[in-house]
Amino acid sequence: MAIDAGTGSIRAVIFDTKGEQISMSQQEWTHLQEEGVANSMSFDFEKNWGLICECIKQSLLLANLKGEDIVALSATSMREGIVLYDSKGKELWAVANVDSRADKEVRYLKENFESFEEEFYQHSGQTFALGALPRLMWLKNNKPHLYERVSKISMIGDWILARLSGVIASDPSNAGTTGIFSLKNRDWFSEMATKVGIKDDIFPPVLESGTLLGDVSKIASIETGLSINTKVVMGGGDVQLGCAGLGVVDVNQVAILGGSFWQQVVNIPSDLKPPKNMSIRVNPHVVAGLSQAEGITFFSGLVMRWFRDAFCDLEKLEASDLGIDVYTLLEEKAKNVPVGSHGIMPIFSDTMKYGKWYHAAPSFLNLSLDVNICNKASMFKALQENACIVSAINLEKIKEFTGVKIDTIVFAGGASKGSLCSQTLADVTGCRVKIPKITEATALGACMSAGVGVGIYSSLVEASKKLVVWDKTYEPNMKNYKLYEDIKLKWQKAYEVQLKLVDDNITTPMWKSAGL
């Protein structure tokens, strides 16, 4: 079993030892702004644990299995989200991935520790934007009664495993996104915390993905329906384990994970230094000896969900009557919309600018009053095109840094289920796009980790090469590729203007990192 804690939902997915998916239960969840705390994104660990238990029970029920039928489980989660514990292992405070409440703390670090962020980035591949240091400083400054009780820190996926086994630990791929970490050594770099006056003794053991933690505890067994004989195994970050679930475990391989956020990743040697301009992030992979250069497209999947929920009630009813997913129906309606979606230009996520990371106000440009060309179908296709265009630009930035030549992209996550979206990605990038048979790659990667922990597989690399099966391949239409090259340039120019509106305090950014 894999417990997959994404930004927008929690899932429990069961696989057999041959990598065949048996069942999946999912619950959407939200992370709310804390009252009176601007740009916060709290993680409600008590409520969310209840949703996790529901998913586990439902997944077992759907599979017609009992708890003792699950030999092992692991967890994966959105990176950057952190959970803090007291000395007894009880949760104190938690935030989800893009919490950016620590605005003053980031500015303080930038102003009082000259070149510290650049030094920090060269060790960890991370900036302060989503890092744990400013958040810990915020807690110290704003809730000292909680801060004083902090004894341990972990990531959200680690918290799930701690709830199940009682063992608090972390792995390189997830812990690396705190920024208090060494890419080279694959371990905490606590000197960073020491330097800015933050507790430097709160970091738990770092264990590689696939390391056995223990058994499901008696309490967790009662809460979830799992057996006390089920083994709990260290997992990892959603993108990195997702790459294992895609067969992306060798140097220079490329993947795009199309979930709530879209991530574009390229495997690189772990001793390759991050770029000096801090344009992208670099994370430890779940495979020792490898890191990943990563671009991030903000909210792409969540924007699709917003569009569905805000405008597509009729399509939801129609899809229900037809017995299909509403996104499948929207793709069917959008398949004949021409390249460029009649000029409609979505403004949501910017390309990756990790050193100064913020986005324009969400909007659509070039809307028309002609309902024959400006309608839900063309707007939906425009959103898909936009996610692919931003992904292509992020990959170009990674190519500049790494020198890797990209001709094939492995595509997975919810977006890859759509044939229109997959073909659009091929056309926009000019690359062959391969879709694995199991599109829930992140969950499969976590199950691989569980299998390694109990000796079913010798390593994640071996499990990945053994279990990943390819379903479809999309070849690029080079005529469309040339059209998208022009659209991509126009979009970049339009986005610059939209950012200036934010800079002039005329519009409000969709998101901005702390300290800007």
- Alpha-beta content class: alpha+beta
Question: What is the C-alpha radius of gyration, as a whole number of Å?
Answer: 22 Å
Q: Which class of the largest domain in CATH terms?
A: Alpha Beta
The domain count comes to 2
CATH architecture of the largest domain: 2-Layer Sandwich
Gross morphology is globular
Q: Looking at the chains present, what oligomeric state does this protein adopt?
A: single chain
Structural topology:
Layout: E1 2-5, E2 9-15, E3 21-28, H1 45-63, E4 72-77, E5 82-85, E6 91-95, H2 103-112, H3 116-124, H4 132-142, H5 144-147, E7 152-155, H6 156-165, H7 172-175, E8 181-182, E9 187-188, H8 191-195, E10 212-215, H9 218-224, E11 231-237, H10 238-244, E12 254-258, E13 262-269, E14 281-284, E15 290-297, H11 300-311, H12 313-322, H13 326-334, E16 345-347, E17 363-365, H14 376-402, E18 408-412, H15 419-429, E19 432-436, H16 441-453, H17 460-467, E20 470-474, H18 478-503
Helix pairs in contact: 2-4, 10-16, 11-12, 11-14, 12-13, 13-14, 14-15, 15-18
